[in-house]
TrEMBL record:
GO molecular function: pentosyltransferase activity
Protein name as catalogued: Glycosyltransferase RgtA/B/C/D-like domain-containing protein
Origin superkingdom: Bacteria
Database matches in Pfam families: PMT_2
Length: 595
């Protein structure tokens, strides 16, 4: 017996040593020619060689390294782990509610702290800035505001402009969220709150179906998923629709079981998601609603209560959608978001064959889902759990339907926080994956293998592999956020007072700094000024005669021009009104390190 224990101990040491070596080897890849550098460059589907090395190293080094590290701890931790598992399974109803609150608090704090530590409370794309501008317009009690004359001086990327008036072209739900932040002074807080919803919902569903301990595992999968964790730091519409669609799954389950008002709740939360991301909502929910329709045809559901409840729930969202479109574009059926295209016959800016869209959009994002959801282990778990029951099949069909939406547009979407257009898939895939893990454990038990070994290997690969993956990408996001912090500090520290700075496009400006150019960013334009022009410093585009035309709009402000500087200064500020220039401020710099 002593010999057997000794052999087990040496096996654990060997597994741990090999696991540590594989993890160390991953970080050693920084010394290779491509390194592990993550950059943010156009087009969206481009990846640096260092980023590709990171993905390859994660799959072939971190995942097996995590498995070995997990297995090395089985012998010492199996007994306390079993006790903890049994304690979780024995939780009372009150303790389960307390656990749900704990999951919500953890998810919220991770999102909120991550936003300030890694994103420095700054956007990662221009549409976040445009959405906030739209929220500011709504908070002022208007749908459109008068922009500058000349219009070309105003940063209008992702804005809807008509007859010199403008606002964000984003959907109503996103603008309302920002308007609430403006009116309450809480800024992006509502997005961090929304980020906590999927983890709680997934834990609740898994608890009801598999038990409280499995609910905890399901919540862990959501929190560890890079595409869930990193997106949660942002202020994108996807956070709102992801939260609403997660709740819609709960309402669907409750409606099938209890009926009555739950059909109304299903329609209501579906409508909330629709107001944030209409097309994605319709495609994601299509399998669920088609299943409901089939059950109605088969007379398995009460037609009046079901259809009446759904119509009643959807009605507020549909009315708000049509009324908002009419107020902004003048046409209830023409959303500002698609007003630049021929609606509804053409939703793409460029014509492309179905095969091209399938490869460049659907295939690309399917790959991104495989990389960013839970990596190769996630692909395995989803594959094993997909056929568990009707719910897992519907969830997987929802993911496939959303991927099918890629056939109708040509916007691949960024992948710096995962495949951003498919963010709603994370909770659905987590639910399928936890069923897959449960099935693997059941198979191990039937084969008389230690189920703790399966759990330790899988969780070890996820905690180690995804923990490192998440942190490295979060640090990369922080480097691009430092670009915007440095640019803002350069202007604020110049001591301009109340002023208007005429500048080239934002991307042209920050690209003057070599360190910034190396990192890159998807924020390509200056943030739109507040609709009331409340800031002391307003940055607008420069152009022939723009200063003279803008002076009547800003009579109490000095005017400056941001122009290229002489080495080593990337640019400098010149007064346009002939007054002495302000004291020179330090040139913007950013600390970059090997990643």
């Amino acid at each position: 017996m002593t010999s057997a224990r000794g052999s087990t101990g040496w096996n654990a040491v060997a597994q741990g040593a090999l696991g540590c070596f594989l993890v160390a080897a991953f970080f050693g890849l920084k010394e290779t020619a491509p390194g592990l550098t993550v950059s943010f460059r156009m087009p969206f589907s481009a990846s640096s060689s260092g980023e590709l090395y990171q993905w390859l190293g994660h799959a072939l080094l971190l995942v097996p390294g995590g498995v070995l590290l997990g297995l090395s701890l089985v012998h010492g931790l199996s007994a306390p782990a079993v006790r903890m598992w049994r304690r979780l399974e024995a939780l009372s109803a009150q303790e389960r509610r307390a656990g749900a609150v704990l999951v919500a608090v953890v998810a919220f704090l991770l999102a909120r702290v991550g936003r300030f530590v890694f994103l420095l409370d700054r956007p990662i794309t221009d549409d976040e800035q445009a959405a906030r501008f739209g929220g500011q317009v709504l908070a002022s009690g208007r749908f459109l505001v008068k922009l500058t004359d000349p219009l070309e001086s105003f940063p209008t990327i992702f804005l809807y402009v008509r007859d010199g008036m403008g606002s964000s072209f984003e959907w109503l739900g996103l603008q309302v969220a920002w308007a609430l932040g403006e009116l309450t002074g809480t800024g992006s807080l509502v997005f961090s709150l929304a980020a906590a919803v999927p983890a709680v919902v997934v834990a609740w569903v898994a608890t009801r179906r598999l038990g409280p301990a499995w609910g905890g595992v399901a919540a862990l999968l959501v929190l560890l998923s890079p595409m869930s964790a990193l997106l949660s730091m942002t202020a994108h519409a996807h956070l709102l629709s992801r939260a609403a669609l997660s709740v819609a799954v709960v309402c669907f389950l409750q409606a099938e079981e209890k009926g009555g008002r739950w059909w109304t709740w299903l329609g209501l939360v579906s409508g909330v998601s629709f107001l944030c991301r209409p097309f994605e909502t319709l495609f994601f929910l299509a399998p669920f609603y088609l299943w409901v329709l089939w059950r109605l045809v088969c007379r398995e559901l009460p037609v009046g209560a079901c259809l009446g409840g759904l119509v009643l729930g959807w009605l507020p969202a549909v009315v708000a959608f049509l009324a908002f479109n009419h107020a902004v574009t003048g046409d209830a059926l023409l959303p500002a978001r698609v007003s630049m295209y021929t609606f509804p016959a053409k939703l793409s800016a460029h014509d492309a064959s179905m095969l091209e869209r399938f490869g460049a959009n659907t295939s690309y994002n399917a790959l991104m889902l495989a990389v960013w959801f839970l990596g190769p282990v996630g692909v395995l778990l989803v594959g094993v759990g997909a056929s568990w029951d009707r719910l897992t099949k519907l969830l997987l069909l929802s993911v496939l339907a959303l991927l099918g939406l890629g056939l109708f547009h040509d916007n691949h979407g960024i992948h710096s926080v995962g495949p951003i257009h498919y963010s709603e898939c994370a909770p659905a895939l987590a639910l399928v994956a936890v069923h897959g893990l449960r099935r693997l454990v059941d198979v191990a038990r039937r084969a008389e293998l230690p189920s703790a070994t399966v759990m330790a290997g899988v969780l070890g690969s996820l905690v180690v592999g995804l923990g490192i993956f998440d942190m490295r990408n979060a640090l990369a996001l922080r480097e691009q956020a430092l670009i915007h912090e440095s640019m803002e500090a350069y202007l604020n520290d110049a001591g301009l007072g109340r002023a208007v700075v005429l500048a080239p496009q934002y991307a042209v400006a920050w690209n003057q700094v070599p360190a910034f150019r190396k990192v890159g960013s998807f924020v390509l334009e200056w943030p739109p000024p507040h609709p009331g022009y409340e800031e002391d410093l307003i940055v607008l585009h420069d152009g022939p005669g723009f200063a003279e035309k803008l002076r009547p709009r800003f009579p109490d402000r000095r005017f400056f021009r941001l122009v290229p500087g002489k080495a080593p200064d990337p640019f400098r500020l010149e007064p346009i009104d002939g007054r002495a220039p302000p004291p020179a401020s330090p040139s913007p710099t950013v600390e970059t390190g090997t990643r």
